[in-house]
Design brief:
single chain, 193 residues, alpha+beta, Nuclear Transport Factor 2, Chain: A, 4 helices, 25% helix
Length: 193
Amino acid sequence: MKIKNIVLIITMLLLFPLVSAAQLKFEREYRIQPEVTPPTARAFIDAINPDLKIKWYKEESSQGISIEAKFIYVGKKYSIEFDTLGNIQDAEFIIKKSDINPVVYRNMEVHLDSLYNNWKFQKIQKQYKGKPEDIITSINNDKPNPAVETAYEIVLKGKSSGIAHLYEVTFNEHGEIHHFEQIIQEKADHLEY
């Protein structure tokens, strides 16, 4: 399976020139049982609400291995990512374009228009980073704690020079690009959110 992924990546690099200086992103996710997740990750989720129905995943990506908890809480689809020791990396939840401050959204548009001839959002997530207790407070209060770093992680289809690719772009709270990667897709057999 790993050789297949390596061959796929090499093929993509040879056949499709990068539109920009974006890094390549590939990931593989699969379900795991709660018992094999780090206790600190389970304790974090219990601090939000011990009655949540959690789906746990192990993710192998170009950044390494992580553990994800996915659940719906107060009507929002959350994805909480932990390192393999159970330390929180970030908390994300799906939002609509209309949930983004218009000034921030306009800044995003300006940056994306400079990179692509055409682009379209596929998925928008608001992201929280910070101390575990501040992230838990933000989730439970349904608004960011002032101590939490807020960002937007967006999957978009971008077209430049007649070639379209999927990208994951992270914008800071002001709508400035913080990081972006071209997504190398592999057939997924699970629901992503």
